[in-house]
Structure formats: structure tokens, C-alpha cells
TrEMBL record:
Signal peptide (from-to): none
Domain Xylose isomerase-like TIM barrel: from-to ranges: 26-328
Name of the protein in its database record: Xylose isomerase-like TIM barrel domain-containing protein
Domain of life: Eukaryota
Length: 364
């Protein structure tokens, strides 16, 4: 198996500014083979084009991806689920939301749903916790999800967010996946969230934690020796982060009251790997070497970027981010000497779509 380039639909432009079909076409034109589909993109497409009919939007999205030769890697994010203290809400998500997501995912032609670690946070009024860190509860919730998915033919991929309430490191997410112990429940390893937790501190003047290099090195050594079966890694994400010119405090323009600092940073200042000229500073290559050389991962490599630049209404925004992303992916492949990589300098959209777009050229 060779690595294949994917990108998140949200990483090509904000859904309420840039339409989903245009973003998919730009991704395909630049050489991406897969897409992580965000529900917000599907929702905006449904509202704009199909009077809110999500099923019709899903069917049309699948048809377009098939014509473009693209795979829908997953539908995401099925969020704010595991470890809820409000068990009635947990049941509602399982009994009402999940069946709808199964229906949408089936219409999209994907068998995978992504679950980020819960970051619901405390009640904004009372400050009371709304999630529990009790591993037994978290694992039981996710086993319930996996078992329902298995019966319907779906897989789930779990990702630790570096601002998660209780699961905020790769170690914690792997322990959860291991304890869930279901063949259809796997792991997503994300370079940004790994470095964002133990290496980066956007609230610090240095942009780093006090022992950044040593702590990351120790974490990566644990990853090397964790005996993770590569088959349990359903896909990986590669993305960098921007070193801010000022600490992200209450005066910073990225600050949003009530949200974790790392979340505010993530939503505004991610970068593609090798974009040091834009402020990238996380040791992404070190992390990638562990993914591909030590763990032996091969499969979908997705670039999940969130950035303030995605809100630019310029119609060329999706094309520009697709260009930056694929150049980053190919450079990673060259540096790590991936087998089977073919770099595409010019990719034409199929003739059936020529009326809505045109070939895109990019230089590597």
C-alpha cells in the first residue's frame, strides 16, 4: 500500500463563503485523491442548493466525487459525544443523530465517521463540568458507538484534540482505542495535535512549553515503542502551526472568551508542513518520520488546515490552498522518500465538468 493525498473540505475555504463543489473540483485538479468531508460543508451545500435536503446534497456530492475520481475518506466530526455527564444527551446522540449520520455516510459512499475527543468544557453559567474523565465511561460510550456502527457497516476513527477536556494527547487516545477493542474503531494521529499539546504554547511569548523539545522527544519515543498495529491507524493528518507574533491572551485578536487557548490558535493559525516562510515552527518532520518510518504507516495522509485565510472571499482561495497543500504533500514525500509517489504537475478536470472549471497548473 502506498500513501495517498487527502485534504479536509474545510481546509479549502469556509463553507459559508466557498461552495463545496468548487472546493472538491479544486482539490481534484491539484492532485488530491481523497477528501475529509465536514458536515458544515454538506449542510451549507444543502441549504444553498437543495432547500436543506441533506440527503440530496450527499448524493450529489458522491456523484461529483466519483466523476472527479476522488474518495470521501470520512464524514466528520461526530463531536461532543463520549463522557457526557448528561446521559439523556448521550442517548439522544446515539438514538437520533447517529442514525442520520449513518444514512448520510452511506449516501456519500464512505464507511468511516471521525470522532474528535470531547471538548465541551464546563457549563458557561455555573462552571460545573459537563464531561467526565472516567475512562470506564468514555470507553463504554465509544464501544456503544462502535457496536452500532459494526452492525451498519461503519468504522469510527478517534482523534485526540490538544484542547480536549480529558483526552488531549496521542497517548490518551491510543489507550482509549486499545480499551475499546473493536475492529471498526481506530486511531487518527495528527501532527498538529501531538505537537500542539506537548511542544507548543500559543499563550507563551516563546510559543513553546518550558521543556518543549525534550517533552516532544519523550512523547515520540513512547509512540515508537507503543506497539501500535499500523492497521489500527485509519489515517494520519499532517499540518503545522504558526508561531504568533504576540502571546494569545485576552487582548489577542484570536481570543474568544470561554474557548481554550489552543483551540483559538488552531482555528486561526494552522499551516501546511514546510511553510516556515509563513511562520511554521512545529517539528512536523520529526513527527512524520515516526508515523512513516517507525510505525510503518501507509495509507491516507490528510492535510487538515484551519486558518483565518480560509475566510478570504477571493474566489481563488480554494485553488490557492489546494496548491499550497499539494506542494507540501509532495515535498514530504520527497524528503521521506515515499515509494510509489507520482507528482502531477498538471491535472485536468474530466471533460464532463469542463463547463464549470478548467485545468489548473501548479509548480513543484
Amino acid at each position: 500500500m502506498f500513501n495517498r493525498p487527502g485534504i479536509a473540505s474545510m481546509s479549502l475555504g469556509r463553507p459559508w463563503i466557498h461552495d463545496l463543489p468548487g472546493k472538491l473540483m479544486q482539490a481534484a485538479a491539484h492532485g488530491f485523491e481523497g477528501i475529509e468531508l465536514f458536515f458544515d460543508d454538506l449542510d451549507c451545500y444543502a441549504q444553498r442548493t437543495f432547500n436543506g435536503d441533506h440527503m440530496e446534497a450527499a448524493r450529489q456530492t458522491r456523484r461529483l466525487c466519483e466523476r472527479l475520481g476522488m474518495t470521501i475518506i470520512c464524514l466528520q466530526p461526530f463531536s461532543m459525544y463520549e463522557g457526557l455527564i448528561d446521559r439523556a444527551e448521550s442517548d439522544r446522540l446515539i438514538n437520533e443523530k447517529l442514525p442520520k449520520w449513518f444514512t448520510l455516510a452511506r449516501a456519500l459512499g464512505t464507511d468511516m465517521i471521525q470522532v474528535p475527543s470531547n471538548f465541551l468544557g464546563p457549563d458557561p453559567t455555573t462552571g460545573a463540568p459537563r464531561t467526565t474523565g472516567d475512562r470506564t465511561v468514555i470507553v463504554r460510550d465509544l464501544q456503544r458507538l462502535a457496536d452500532l456502527g459494526a452492525g451498519a457497516g461503519f468504522r469510527f476513527v478517534y482523534e485526540a484534540l490538544c484542547w480536549g477536556d480529558h483526552v488531549d494527547t496521542w497517548e490518551a487516545s491510543w489507550e482509549v482505542v486499545r480499551d475499546v477493542d473493536r475492529p471498526n474503531f481506530g486511531l487518527c494521529l495528527d501532527s498538529f495535535n501531538i505537537a500542539g499539546r506537548v511542544y507548543a504554547d500559543p499563550a507563551s511569548p516563546t510559543g513553546k512549553t518550558p521543556n518543549a523539545a525534550a517533552d516532544l522527544a519523550a512523547s515520540l519515543q513512547r509512540l515508537r515503542t507503543a506497539n501500535i498495529d499500523p492497521a489500527k491507524i485509519f489515517y494520519v493528518q499532517l499540518v503545522d502551526g504558526e508561531r504568533l507574533t504576540a502571546p494569545l491572551n485576552e487582548e489577542h485578536p484570536f481570543h474568544v472568551a470561554g474557548q481554550p487557548v489552543r483551540m483559538n490558535w488552531s482555528r486561526n493559525a494552522r499551516l501546511f508542513p514546510f511553510e516556515e516562510n509563513r511562520g511554521g515552527y512545529l517539528p512536523i518532520l520529526d513527527i512524520a518520520r515516526v508515523f512513516f518510518e517507525d510505525l510503518g504507516f501507509r495509507g491516507w495522509v490528510s492535510l487538515e488546515l484551519f486558518s483565518r485565510t480560509l475566510a478570504d472571499p477571493d474566489p481563488f482561495t480554494p485553488a490557492e490552498h489546494a496548491r499550497r497543500g499539494i506542494e507540501s504533500y509532495y515535498k514530504m514525500g520527497r524528503v521521506l522518500q515515499w515509494d510509489g509517489q507520482v507528482e502531477k504537475n498538471t491535472v485536468s478536470i474530466p471533460e464532463c465538468l469542463a463547463e464549470v472549471t478548467s485545468p489548473v497548473q501548479h509548480h513543484l
